[in-house]
Design a protein that fits this description.
With about 375 residues, the protein is of the alpha/beta class. The chain contains 13 helices and 13 strands. The strands form three sheets. Strands 2-9-8-7-6-3-4-5 form an eight-stranded mixed sheet, with helices on both faces. A three-stranded antiparallel sheet has the order 10-13-12, with helices on one face. The chain has a two-stranded parallel sheet with strand order 1-11. The structure holds pyridoxal-5'-phosphate. One of its GO terms (biological process) is alpha-amino acid metabolic process.
Length: about 375
C-alpha cells in the first residue's frame, strides 16, 4: 500500500481490511434464513432475544439485566435521560470521550472532572472531591484502553471505585467498548462482575469487534434500571434494528466473532507498535503511555506547544488528528489523540513523519515570535 495523500489519525473506527466482510455476509444470510419471523418483525425494545441471551450469559446475568440498543451511544443516551436531570453532578474522567462530554453538557449536567493517571482515574482525587462535598449521581468510567487516553484502570482502583460508589451513593457507569481488544497483559474483571450492591451499569458494543455500521450495543445492570431503559426505548423507537441484531447474534453464537476479534487484535498490535516506534524515532519530545489494547494513543507534547497551530500545520501536510482540548473542559492544548485503528502501518509511519514536520514548523514559528 502506498502512502495516502491524506492520512487520518482522527477516526476511532476500524479500517475495512480488518472487518470480517465475508463472514458477516455469511452470518447475515444464515440469520435471515433461520429466523425471518424474528429478524423482520418489530420485536421489542429489549432487543433480539437470542442476542440478549448471549450477552446475558457472557456476563453471568439474566436476560432481564440486559437491553440491546442501536449502538452503545444510544444506550448511554437512554441511561443519562433516565438517571439525570439538569444540574445533577456527574463525575467524568479528564480527559474523556468527547461525545459523552457533549451529551452531558447538552443535558445541563454539572460536570465534575477528575484527572486520569496512567492506570486510570485518580481515585484519591475523586475521594477528596467527594469528601469536600461533591454528590454525583453518576461517575462515567472507561475502564479498558481508554478513549482518548489509551490507559487501563487498575484492579485495586476498580475495587476502590465500587467502595466509593457504595459509600457516597452514586452509580458507576462502566463504558467498556474496547474490553475484547487486549493484545498485551492479562484481562481484568469488570466492575460489573465485582459489584455486589447494584452500583454498576455497564455498556459495551459490537462496533469495535464486529463493525460500527451494524450499530449494535447494549447496557447490562440492575433489573429495575434496565426495565426503565427498556420503557424509554419503547417510547422512543419501539425497538432497535432486529435485522442488525439477528446478524450479530448469528455472528456471535456461531463463534465467527472470535476470528474477527483475533484479526482486529493482530492488526491493532502491529499498528500500535508501528506508531510507538515512529513516535520514538521521529518525535522524541512526545510523551505517551503505551496502550495494552484498543484503538488510541494519547500524546503529550512539551507544555507551551500550541495544539491549534500544530493541528493547522499538520492539516497542511495532509494529516488530521483530534486535538486534546476536544476531550477536556479545560486544558489539553499541548496534547493530541492518535487513533491507529483505521490506518495501515505504512501510513502510520508517514503520518508520524508529517506530525513531526508540523511540530518542527510550529516550534520554529513560536521561537521566531519570542
Ligand atoms: C468510550 C466509548 N463509548 C461509546 C462509544 C460509542 O460506541 P457505539 O458505536 O457502540 O455507539 C465509543 C465509540 O467510539 C467510545 O469510544
Amino acid at each position: 500500500m502506498s502512502a495516502a495523500e491524506s492520512i487520518s489519525f482522527a477516526r476511532g473506527a476500524p479500517s475495512l481490511d480488518i472487518i470480517a466482510v465475508d463472514e458477516l455476509r455469511a452470518a447475515a444470510a444464515r440469520a435471515l434464513e433461520q429466523d425471518p419471523a424474528g429478524a423482520f418483525a418489530y420485536g421489542t425494545s429489549a432487543g433480539y432475544p437470542p442476542l440478549v441471551e448471549w450477552i446475558a450469559e457472557k456476563h453471568g446475568l439474566a436476560p432481564e439485566n440486559v437491553v440491546a440498543t442501536n449502538g452503545s451511544m444510544q444506550a448511554d443516551a437512554f441511561l443519562f435521560r433516565h438517571l439525570l436531570e439538569a444540574g445533577d453532578q456527574v463525575v467524568i474522567e479528564a480527559p474523556s470521550y468527547d461525545r459523552t462530554l457533549l451529551s452531558l453538557r447538552d443535558m445541563g449536567a454539572d460536570i465534575v472532572p477528575v484527572e486520569l493517571e496512567s492506570d486510570g482515574i485518580d481515585v484519591e482525587a475523586l475521594e477528596r472531591t467527594l469528601r469536600d462535598g461533591a454528590r454525583p449521581k453518576l461517575a462515567h468510567i472507561i475502564p479498558n484502553f481508554h478513549n482518548p487516553a489509551g490507559c487501563t484502570l487498575a484492579l485495586e482502583k476498580r475495587r476502590r471505585l465500587l467502595e466509593l460508589a457504595d459509600h457516597y451513593d452514586f452509580i458507576l457507569f462502566e463504558d467498556d467498548p474496547y474490553v475484547e481488544l487486549r493484545f498485551d497483559g492479562e484481562g481484568l474483571p469488570t466492575m460489573l462482575s465485582l459489584d455486589e450492591s447494584e452500583r454498576v451499569v455497564y455498556a459495551s458494543s459490537f462496533s469495535k469487534t464486529v463493525c460500527p455500521g451494524i450499530r449494535v450495543g447494549y447496557l447490562a445492570g440492575p433489573e429495575k434500571t434496565i426495565a426503565a431503559v427498556r420503557r424509554m426505548a419503547t417510547n422512543t423507537y419501539i425497538s432497535p434494528s432486529m435485522v442488525s441484531q439477528a446478524i450479530v447474534a448469528e455472528f456471535s453464537r456461531s463463534g465467527a466473532i472470535d476470528g474477527s476479534i483475533e484479526t482486529v487484535k493482530r492488526a491493532l498490535r502491529e499498528r500500535r507498535d508501528a506508531l510507538a516506534g515512529a513516535l520514538e524515532r521521529e518525535l522524541p519530545d512526545a510523551r505517551f503511555v503505551l496502550p495494552e489494547g484498543g484503538y488510541f494513543l494519547w500524546v503529550d507534547l512539551p507544555e507551551g506547544t500550541d495544539g491549534d497551530a500544530l493541528f493547522e500545520a499538520a492539516k497542511e501536510q495532509g494529516l488530521v488528528f483530534v486535538k486534546g482540548t476536544d476531550f477536556l473542559l479545560e486544558g489539553g492544548e499541548s496534547s493530541l489523540r492518535i487513533a491507529y485503528s483505521g490506518v495501515g502501518t505504512e501510513d502510520i509511519e508517514e503520518g508520524v513523519k508529517r506530525l513531526a514536520a508540523a511540530y518542527a514548523q510550529v516550534g520554529e514559528k513560536s521561537a521566531s515570535s519570542v
